[in-house]
Amino acid sequence: MITIIGLERLIKTFGFSINQIAQELGIGKQTVYDWLKGKRKIPKERIEQLSKIPEFDHIDKKLFQKEIDEATELEITLAHLNYLSARDSEEIVDEDGNVFILDPHAQSRRAMEMHMLDESEEELKRTRALLHNDTDYLSGLNHSIGESYSLALAALNGIFQQNDASKIKAVTDLLVLINMNDMTDELDKGLKELLKKHDILGGGMFG
């Protein structure tokens, strides 16, 4: 199975070449190829450099290393439209002195935002269905894991129902962090300290 990371899709979407990215970062193109082929991860300092490329100004830093899925594809497409809007928008002043922004990409951007909202709602529906109906899957898990699975889905469902963007982003970033990294002692310790700080350290995976 071929894995594609966000950087590869960004290079294609924004019309860059491997050589251009290498020159922007001051590194050899083979290093960039190694990142794209999964031979090594992109170092944090290089991700910082990538985020400072003007075309990538609207890119969430986690997308550079993240494996591509449908949601990531949509994020990258929207980021590209945001970049085009920022680049191509014009300020128009009418005869009464009123200022208007003429954005040739506004319609496409709004359509993409609505599409992403629809996708999020569909994902929430799937989560609810899984939470309430996936008894066959739960019965195949041992009791401890099955219980944790149900609690995790219930917590996620509750967060999305609150429709709090900051909470949704926080839990998504945390899940991406855990999913994309090995559960090292350092990561485990950091998560425990965070939970302990907020007085919510209990049983389960951190107990």
Which labels suit this protein?
207 residues, single chain, two-stranded antiparallel sheet, 10 helices, 2 strands
- Radius of gyration, in Å, reads 21 Å
Number of strands: 2
Overall shape: it is globular
Q: Distance between the terminal alpha carbons, to the nearest Å?
A: 35 Å
Q: How many strands, which pairing sense, and closed or not: the largest β-sheet?
A: 2 strands, antiparallel
Which class of secondary structure composition applies to the elements?
mainly alpha
Question: Poorly predicted ranges (pLDDT <50, ≥5 residues)?
Answer: 201-207
Order of helices and strands: HHHHHEEHHHHH
Mean pLDDT: 80
Strand order of the largest sheet: 1-2
Tally of helical runs:
10
Task: Kindly describe this structure.
This protein is mostly helical. It has a domain at 164-207. Helices cover 64% and strands 4% of the residues. The protein is built from ten helices and two strands. Strands 1-2 form a two-stranded antiparallel sheet. Strand 1 and strand 2 form a beta hairpin. The radius of gyration is 21 Å and the shape is globular. The two termini are 35 Å apart. Residues 7-61 form the HTH cro/C1-type domain. This is Helix-turn-helix domain-containing protein. It holds the Pfam family HTH_3. It comes from Peribacillus simplex.
